[in-house]
Amino acid sequence: MKTAAAAILAIAAVAAGQNVADGEKLIQAGDCSSCHALDHEVVGPAYRDVAKRYAGQNDAVSKLAAKIRDGGNGMTPHPDLTEAQRRQMVAWILTHKDAAQAPAAAPLKRYTYKTKDGATVQLEFPLFVEGKGQKVTMEVFHGYQLFNSYCYRCHGTDATGSQLGPDLRHSLAAGMKPREFLAVAMSGRKEKAMPAWAGFLSEDDVFHVYWYVKGRSLDLVPSGRPPSEQD
Fold it and tell me: What is the per-residue burial (b if ≥16 Cβ within 10 Å, else e) of 184-209?
């Protein structure tokens, strides 16, 4: 009997391990990483924090699987996944309740620029390549490319606004922060017919778009194709 019981436990352990491995693959292949990370908040909470919140709850798997299916509160629903797939994803998430928190970020360097009206502004990212005049960095140029490939349809070419979407230069000038920009871009605004870009654009992609639009809002980055360090 002991041998049979041990065999059953061994089979169960293998099955549980397979569920966790399959869950990790599903998460990596899906759009989850656009809004979540293991050890820090992106748009949504860290997997570590979700696991801690649901630790010890007997219905944790059912609750979280339903959340993945139905979405809500800015989270994209995933009705296309099977119940088994959603439970595998939850199984992986729940293994990380003891994951270490991301180390505190080092103080950000500040970059100082003068606007055309003589005002001085400080940014937490570089707009231009040092020593290259007005050539934008690869990241800002990438933001320009993304914006004028996708965002321009509603927000106007070169971030100038249109009848379909607001002028994002004004939104940033009014104080919209990078994390807020990221949250809106990833989650969308259904009531305003704005699509969710989670799963298509990465966190870095959206920040690069933000950097480009910030440069436009300050009139430091010109309209049209800006000269870049790639030139």
Answer: bbbbbeeeeebebbbeebebebbbbb
